Amino acid sequence: MGLLRPLRLLAKALAAEDSPRRISAGFALGMLAGLVPKSSLLSQAALLLLALLNVNLAAGYAAAALFSLLSPLIDPLTHRIGRSLLEAKALHPLWNSFYNAPILPWTRFNNTVVLGSFLLGLALAYPLYRAGTPLFARYQERYGVRIRKWKLVQLLLGAETAGRFR
Amino acid sequence: MIRWSYLAPRLILAALVWGFCALAMDPLLKRGLEKNGSRSLGAKVELLRLRTRAFPPSIELSSFAAADPSEPMKNLFEFQRARLALEGRPLLEKKLSGSAELSGLRWGTPRSRSGALPKARPSKASAALWDYASRSKELGLETAPQTQKDSSARYSVQPGDLKSLAMAKDLKSAWPGRMKAWKDRVDAFDAEDKAKKLKLLVDKASASQDLPSRLAALRELQQKTSALKSGLNELKGSLSSDMEKAKEDLRAVDAAKRADIDALRSKLNLPRFDAKTLSSYLLGGKAASGLDKALRLLEFARSRMPSKGSSPPPAARGTDIPFPKERSWPAFHLKTVKLSGSMDLGDPLDFSGEIRDLTTQPALLGRPTVLELRGASGTRSLALKAVLDHSQTMPSERILFNGRGFPAGELRAGDPSSMAIVASPGIASFSGELGLEGRKLHGKINLEETGLRVEPAAGSVSKEIEGALRSSLARIKTLSASIELSGELDSPQISISSNLGEAVSQALKKAVGAELQARTKGLEEQAERLVGEETRSLSRSMEEGSGELLAKLGLGDAKLRELQNAIAQKLRVPGGGLPDLRKLFR
């Protein structure tokens, strides 16, 4: 049954069984995790946060997968953001202290794309959460009821319910 | 907001991941070490076991063996056990820093399976050394009887056979144009005329009583005189370097002439009996094999320890921007590696030593890597010192070694199908130095083996030659050989001289007769007559032309000095005086 859990979560998200706020929060966190290159500790931290917080995991993982694919396409933009910040003289003391601290070099914050994509992800997370909440609510109204009637979704949701009474 | 029902299973998952890492990390590291090592060395690198420990951080390697790319059934080196004690703080930055102990180190041990890699390509240095070894085997001795009977008409040199002649003619025809261009340039500059005009300006300024106008004239004179001086210097410098280039071209013609003679000799299958060629024939293969090993290790060190000028590999995405570090650790740095093992030079000899500052980032460390080994037992002794300095823009390596009193086995040198000799076991000593500055190689190795009996290998040559060889080689009780290394890392040149080569040369000359020498000398004289005529007249014309131009420029120099003196004497400003004007032109 454990193997079906991700599918059940996806079905729950599609069938609008979860609250729009949790789906939107999961999506925003997944976007952050997906944008940052995976070799950085920042991306792993975002994924860990996604797992720890009470947000919709399916929406989070779907967003992480989607933005992982899109991320290389916006490298020129994130590179420019990261470069301008890393080369800003006023910020040098901060970067120096990060660079000399333990563990932090593992985040690869001194890479232009890593820093640029992380900051872009952070900047977009809250607006995406706020904009996503009404969108997911509207989606629930329009499509949630229809998707709930799909046999496969009913099967997966039934398994979820059965699992609770076991 | 934390969902604990999620946290517990994820913590279990994290524990499982940690467990996987603990079990799989060592095999993965072992595989990575073997794979990267094999790729860099060009032969199999094998390791029986790798074990990492977190507390205290350390790595243990057991039964490491690196195969010899040139002799795949032997190990280049192997060791029984190595223990790396790592420091914790650098590890937090993914850096390995610490010290190590390595025991059971040995060289040249036999392997049960071949260590050759299917797709391994020899390096350029290796290919050049093996090419030298195979060329040195072409003695042409088997054609000697035929050559004695040939008519001398076969050995006449045609101008079309000589590439050097075409080169010399090209140079000669281009020379008048080159000289005319220089003459025009020197005439256009006309240093004498410029100096005369300046002299007039000095006279005019000295006649004036007005201090501001004298100072203005002085400033103008200073500018013009220094422009004249720098123009003269530049012209002289360019002319000298162009003349040096022309001399280099002449030297290239000379080298081409020697290559032409060699090519003619090969074409006519003329055997070569000079001591150097015979020394290369007898000892070239062994020298190439030994040097190949040393150069492979140096190339390996260069690939793994990049020098100051080398740029780091670019990041896969974006750019890594470095910041100043209060304390920087190289990605890999072993402060000391204690070494112990044994070397099989006739009999095993135990040795010990250490490596200091072994690192993958020598530029960051700023110190060279130093290896020192010593071993002695009875009359036998061995010492090795290697300094690999990659901390500067131009990497350099220097290896010094010497060994004494080693029992050497029977030596079989040469090709049994052409001519071979056998030397009985003796006591060997060696010493030498190998150096690499950038890509430039230099080195000399001296070998000596005492208590020998040398004789020709049975059945490899005719009875007449065998007899001559036997009597000549009987005089050798001590074998002395000297191997000189030069050229570039990608194209090393070896030159071998030995008393063995001299003895064999004398014997062959005596046995095969004077005809062969006469044939070779005849070829050399003909080539010299054809090419030398062109190069001599060109050289004369070069000396005369450049001398004339330099004299003309020298005259300008003399005028300039006169002018400087005139400025200093005539343009004295009353009151505070003038700075020492001569200094301005030095």
Description:
The complex is a heterodimer of chains A (166) and B (586). Chain A has helices at residues 5-14, 20-35, 41-52, 57-70, 75-86, 92-100, 112-148, 151-165. Chain A has 166 residues and is an all-alpha fold. Chain A starts with a helix and ends with a helix. The model of chain A has no long low-confidence stretch (mean pLDDT 83). Chain B is of the alpha+beta class. Chain B contains 13 helices and 16 strands. In chain B, the strands form 2 sheets. Chain B has a 13-stranded mixed β-sheet. Chain B has a 3-stranded antiparallel β-sheet with strand order 10-11-14. In chain B, a hairpin with a 3-residue loop joins strand 10 (411-415) and strand 11 (419-423). Chain B is flat, with a radius of gyration of 35 Å. Chain A binds chain B through residues 37, 39, 51-54, 57, 72, 75, 78-79, 82-83, 86-87, 92, 95-96, 99-100, 102-103, 105-106, 108, 110-114, 116, and chain B through 1-3, 6-7, 10, 89, 92-94, 315-327.
The total strand number of chain B stands at 16
Structural class by secondary-structure content of chain B: alpha+beta
Distance between the termini of chain B: 82 Å
Chain-averaged pLDDT of chain B: 82
Please state how the strands of the largest beta sheet of chain B are arranged side by side: 1-2-3-4-5-6-7-8-9-12-13-15-16
For the report, how would you describe the main beta sheet of chain A? none
Number of strands of chain A: 0
The structural class of chain A is mainly alpha
Which chain pair has the greatest contact? Answer: A-B, 31 and 23 residues
Low-confidence stretches of chain A: none
First-last Cα distance of chain A: 11 Å
Number of helical regions of chain A:
8
Element-by-element helix/strand order of chain B: HEEEHEHHHHHHEEHEEEEEEEEHEEHHH
The largest β sheet of chain B comes out as: 13 strands, mixed
Shape field of chain A: elongated
The number of helical segments of chain B is 13
How large a portion of the residues of chain A is in β-strands, by DSSP E?
A: under 5%
Radius of gyration of chain A: 19 Å
**Which quaternary structure do these chains form?**
heterodimer
